[in-house]
Design brief:
CATH topology of the domain at 43-194 and 242-251: Collagenase (Catalytic Domain)
Helix content: 25-40%
Number of strands: 8
Strand content: 5-15%
Shape: globular
Largest sheet: 6 strands, mixed
Radius of gyration: 17 Å
Distance between the termini: 48 Å
Structural class: alpha/beta
Length: 263
């Protein structure tokens, strides 16, 4: 595939002019009449264990679009490090027919995601979050992944494959690793989507994203850091400010808004 080099959370690739797009697909969400919540709307349900003691990450993928094992293993590790789920976090894989749609809007992702969910996002003592891996691309083809409500995200492997530059540094696998964790970071409310951090680490020009290039929530690896591509390294960790925000949300020292559930 030769559609050019693309990025969701801001990985700018050499030889391509920087094109930035947000990866929060909330278009039409607030006026949809549903109670599906905004990205970050189940933050406290993830960080608290008083009601939801376990968590399932449902991965629905089109044939040929199953995520990399390194990506899902890393995702589980990152969520286990911040979410209070004493009975564990499980990843459930389901091959799914999404109808070979070529172009996706946020509303399409939301509709298809909810049609395929195996459970309500809050089912007894288990919290369910979902990521779909369909064929096709987002309507903004610079986007590699998008969070569309409180429990649903989509990752576009066709666009991720195209984002791999001719040197394969970083590789499509490494890009997927970062993008997947980045999108789940939005479900956790990062950065400042359902709270206001006491630390000044949100990029003022890219709301919802970190200004720290070492955070997986960074809005972009800017041209000044282009050498990172040739080192084949991309951020995959929440940084100290991200983690401190989550700690403050969990212990109540940072007020949290727009929640579908509160302790």
């Amino acid at each position: 595939m030769e559609k050019g080099v693309r990025i969701c959370f801001g990985i700018l690739v050499v030889l391509i002019s920087p094109i930035l797009s947000g990866c929060l697909g909330t278009d039409g969400l607030l006026n949809s009449g549903s109670n599906r919540g905004i990205p970050g709307g189940l933050t406290l349900a993830c960080l608290d264990d008083s009601t939801y003691t376990s968590m399932v990450i449902e991965i629905d993928y089109e044939l040929g679009y199953q995520p990399e094992t390194t990506s899902t293993d890393m995702l589980k590790e990152r969520l286990e490090s911040v979410c209070a789920k004493p009975k564990g976090i499980e990843i459930l894989f389901t091959e799914t027919d999404f109808g070979d749609r070529e172009v996706w809007q946020a509303s399409d992702i939301r509709t298809s995601g909810w049609e395929e969910k195996s459970h309500d996002p809050r089912d007894d003592s288990t919290l369910y979050w979902q990521v779909i891996f369909p064929s096709g691309t987002y309507h903004d083809t610079s986007v590699l992944g998008v969070a569309v409500d409180a429990s649903t995200i989509s990752i576009f492997k066709d666009s991720i494959d195209d984002a791999e530059n001719v040197f394969r540094r970083p590789s499509a696998e490494k890009i997927e690793n970062s993008v997947l964790i980045h999108e789940f970071g939005h479900l956790l409310g990062l950065v400042n989507t359902v709270y206001t951090s006491p630390a000044d680490h949100e990029d003022s020009s890219k709301p919802g994203h970190s200004s720290n290039e070492d955070s997986v929530m960074y809005w972009a690896i800017e041209s000044s850091s282009i050498a990172n591509f040739f080192d084949n390294e991309l951020p995959t960790e929440f940084d100290v400010d991200d983690k401190n925000d989550l700690i403050g949300l969990a212990d109540g020292s940072i007020p949290c808004t727009d929640q579908l559930w509160t302790p």
